[in-house]
Structures are given as structure tokens and as C-alpha cells.
Amino acid sequence: MIRILVATVLAVISLKLANAQEQxxxxxxxxNPQCGCCEGYADYLRDNGFSVxxxxxxxxxxxxxEAGIPEDFQGCHTMFIDGYTVSGHVPVKTVRKLLSExxxxxxxxxxxxxxxxxxxxxxxxxxxxxxxVGDGEPKVFAVE
Length: 144
What we know:
Layout lengths: L1 H19 L5 E6 L4 H12 L3 E6 L3 H7 L10 E5 L2 E4 L4 H10 L5 E3 L19 E5 L5 E5 L1
């Protein structure tokens, strides 16, 4: 029991330190080392004026969970920017909405890997529901 508690505390501290080292205005994107679509998403953000640092990791599920993204709502990468978490291929318009409105949430997420979303191949076949996450159940933040 003590080992589990110590491991949990250390994990939370490491995530908080990672977030504390974040530079204002710079997005830090954690992704699976083999994922190419995440690189495409980082390039999309850069093309839209964001500074992005990409950090490959095999701990993405843990990072997402500790950032407050429920398992069923996780995207294929997790990004931290200006005190918020952005999970998945969220369109830049919605990222800017989050950063300008500054709602009292932990972050936003576009679950899964929807075809045609920024960084993904294919054509968009339906509106994307981007959810806010924080305390309580995720809620629709935007539909694009």
C-alpha cells in the first residue's frame, strides 16, 4: 500500500515538474515515439503560429490520465500549453478559443484519431466533438 502511494505521489510530482518547466506560449506535445500523425499535428500547429516542442514517450497513457483526460476521451497525443492540456487532433481554432476564453477546466480533448482532423489523413466525414475536461464528466466545448 505504501509503495503504491509513493509511486502515485512521485508520478504526480514528475508531471507537475514537467508542466512547471513549460515556457509560456510554448506547446509541449507528448507522443508515442512511432506516431507520425502526431508529428503532422505539431507541424500543423507550427504552420498556425505556435511554438511546439515534441517529446516522445512510452508513458502517454499515464501522462494523459494524470492530466485529467478520462481513458475513453484520450487522443493519440497530449499537449500542455499555458496551463491547459490539449489531447488529440484538436483544430487550432478551438485551441485558440481555449487560450483566449481561459475557462475553469483542465483542458480539452478530441478523442481518438478522427479521419481528416489536423495531422490525420483522409476526409472529414462528420463534425468533431471537442470536450472540456476537469472536475466531473467531460462536456462538449466545441463542435467543428
